[in-house]
Amino acid sequence: MKSPIKTVALALMSVCVLVTTAVAEAPFNDDIPDKHTVTKGDTLWDISAHFLAQPWLWPEIWQVNPQIQNPHLIYPGDIISLIYIDGKPRLTLTRSRNVKLSPKIREIADRQAIPALPLDMINSFLSRNRVVEPGVLESAPYILAGQTKHLLTAKGDSFYARGDFSETQNSYGIYRNGGAFVDPITNETLGIRAKDIGAGSVTALNDDILTLIATRSLEELRIDDRLLEHEERKIDTTFYPSAPPEGTEGLILSVEGAVSTGGMLDVVSINLGERDGIEIGNMLSILKAGVVVKDRVQGGSVTLPPEKAGLLMVFRTFEKMSFALVLTAELPIQIKDIVRQP
Fold this sequence. Notes:
By secondary structure, the chain is mainly beta. The protein is built from 4 helices and 22 strands. The strands form 6 sheets. Strands 4, 5, 7, 8, 9, 10 and 12 form a 7-stranded antiparallel sheet that branches. Strands 13-15-20-19-16-22 form a 6-stranded antiparallel barrel. The chain is globular. The two termini are 29 Å apart. 31% of the residues are buried.
């Protein structure tokens, strides 16, 4: 999965390294251009990094232009300029051409808006992997048997499921219990990992027995795998980086697809969620907890300051936890690494 991502990784790395120069008092870079003309291949993150040491702060310094309804939509050829209003620096957007709308005719521009971040590689996490409350999987319908009584079922095979199908859908996602997400500090169960295994389309219903055909399988479907209804939510792969609430701090719970260590463009889970004010697009610094060393001069032990390890962006939130994408990794990313407001 990672091989097609590497080309994107190099671009993100060069942009995100600028974040290490960020200082709260001066969000702009020291050497910034007066203007930037948007070109094909730019992203909103790239452009913001031209001007800002903390690119995710870009919404705070836009000068509102009443002629531009949505400054989030930026097109190749548009010009972004640095101006000063009452002595304060602001960014303003000038369209490369005017687009007029008629009450009778809708005109569609022949150019595509540039993306905020190219995050197509996490589409599977956006649309399929889930976190559910304890007990949800245990009470969900389950795979009873394959049509030929096989213990394992693959894509294209028919199989049977049993459970409460009083509100039968045309298709179901198939999941397996991947274990609990537990807060390492409070020991609170934050959710249960519903590991995406595949999907099935309904072909028949007989009382509490459902017949399905496997339409997708990431691995072989097994007896006792669980069926969950498809989520009714909009899937959006465009994200606008933003700052989290003041004082935000948490820990990494897991590195998806790894035992304990991850790197750039890996997906991690964190113990911060919607109840903590976390939103999609929030940026968080990743830090290594300071190690304890002996003071050979004054005696005793001293805990060293945390060490910067990388930067992540939240792309999916739940009530008590979230999934995030590692954008930069200066050190190996591990479970229990600190995540904090940049």
